[in-house]
Amino acid sequence: MKKILLIATALLVFSCNTKDEVDLIVTNANIYTVDADFSKASSVAIKDGKFVAVGDSEEISKEYTALEQLDAEGKTIVPGLIDAHCHFYGLGQNQQVVDLVGTESFDEVLEKVAAFQKERPSEFIWGRGWDQNDWEVKEFPTKAKLDELFPDIPVVLERIDGHAYLVNQKVLDMAGITADTETEGGEIVKENGEITGVLVDNPMGLVNNVIPQASLEQKIQALKDAERISLDYGLTTVNDAGLSRDIIELIDSLQQADELSIRVYAMVSNYPENLDYFLSKGIIKTDGLNVRSVKVYGDGALGSRGAALRAPYSDKPGHFGAMVTPVDQIEALAQRIAATDYQMNTHAIGDSANIVVLRAYEKALEGKTDRRWKVEHAQVISPSDFDYFENGIIPSVQPTHATSDMYWAEDRLGEERVKGAYAYKDLLDKAGMVALGTDFPVEQVNPFLTFYAAVARQDVEQYPEGGFQMENALSREETLKGMTIWAAYSNFEEDEKGSIEPGKFADFVILSDDIMTIPSEEIPNVTAEHVFLGGVRKK
To answer: For FRET with 532, which of 124, 228, 400, 417 sits at 20 to 30 Å CA-CA?
Structure first.
């Protein structure tokens, strides 16, 4: 009898030892895997930063043993969220300047600038986030009061979309800008022949030349601040839409030193020195960094009337906006980039800019397959131009732009033209996918506002009743795909992220609510309770 017991014990020990050991098992979860079947699961096993098994809790527990177990208590889990278009480094920089987002008048802007300068005195004042469309007086401000308050200290206040500055006379003098300064691809705004202080698009570059450069410590702090904010919202990958070589290399060095963990898809800013270096170097790919694309600016923004339109602005006769990058240069860039392995991602807001970009893409990519070039924003499209997206071009869009702009978009575009604006479902039907982002800090970082805007097409006060141009709303499944697997695909990363499947990075988010089933008006209240990056809890 004793012998039988010994044998049984030995068999039990052996049986236990046959379980594969992993680092973490999550059980009792409501998991949307976002795999090809959009299947669900209740458990995952993770080892060495990757999913090794996905299934039900009983199956996983039978096959695996783990150093750490996590009972999700029925909470919803989705793949790590990807912001397909943002300004990650810019978000970090904004933590160090005057925050003007949400100001309701120019007087409030001035109050915030004065208060910031009193609290943190600076020899060069920088602020960001004003939007005259949110003010009672919806006209561009002027520099007159800035000159009174700060006659000797340079002041640069960036509009929320990044496509206009308001500067004082001190800055104009430093930059050598006068009423006679010639400009192309933008505007030095004047009234009665006098400069107002507002610079739209390309003339902003003259100011950039005199802005003091950030120190290495400030750059590092900006990146760490941006990571902290992004991870808190459940973002595990961010697509930064335009970075210089030095910031890209700084991100890489911080990641290698384990001082930065968020994954970054870095679009190279379209400057000659950047292109000369990266296009000749080729694709740079690590687990944390992917450099294989160029960010090009086609035109300006709709809010500052810099977007290039085929017909004049409905609220400014004779004004068409402007191309930031001339048509011939876009065409030449497309040809140059097409000859490499790099992707071309071009900012295009107005219908004129969009057709310029789409035609350039079509010509440059003739005979080439699987290049996944993107149109960033694809905001206003003429009816006949949607068909271009059937040829492998990916629309990279930001749903909160629709709900931010809907109050005045028809004023800019008119009743008919606005129907082709923020047309995410139409774009999806043609392209087969949409990559979804926020464009933060132009919009809020919160990806759940992205989800809500895509599905409900309302602001957080549920305006307008029934939603804005609901024929172009996305389903919840389409929206989640746009924030995960489709965004990953647009980055050539669908084999390593974007869904919860064996072999992929264990990037996932435990949500406060089931975003796929709760009433739509509750979506903005969803939070990322826990965030895992490569199987490591970051929140």
So the answer is: 400
Q: For 319-337, how does the pLDDT look when each residue is reduced to its tens digit (9 = 90+)?
A: 999 999 999 999 999 999 9
Q: Which residues contact 215 (CB under 8 A, 6 or more apart)?
A: none
Is the link from the previous residue into 441 a cis peptide, with omega within 30 of 0? yes
Quote the number of domains for the chain: 2
For the record, the structure tokens of 236 come out as: 């595990």
Report CA-CA distances (Å) from 198 to 78, 168, 306, 472: 44, 9, 12, 34
Q: Is the CB of residue 302 less than 8 Å from the CB of residue 405? A: yes
Mark whether 155 and 279 lie in a shared domain. no
pLDDT tens readout for residues 427-485:
999 999 999 999 999 999 999 999 999 999 999 999 999 999 999 999 999 999 999 99
Statement to judge: residues 164 and 305 lie in one domain: no
Give the pair of three-digit tokens for residue 522.
């509750």
- Report residue 68 CA to chain centroid gap: 34
Name the residue range of residue 158's domain. 124-208
Strand 98-99 relative to strand 125-130, pairing: parallel
Whole-number Å distance between alpha carbons of 484 and 424: 16
d(CA 294, CA 239): 12
List strand residue ranges (DSSP E) for 164-317, in order: 164-167, 186-191, 194-201, 235-243, 263-269, 284-285, 289-297
In a domain, residue 105? The reply is no
Can you tell me whether residue 383 is helix, strand or coil? helix
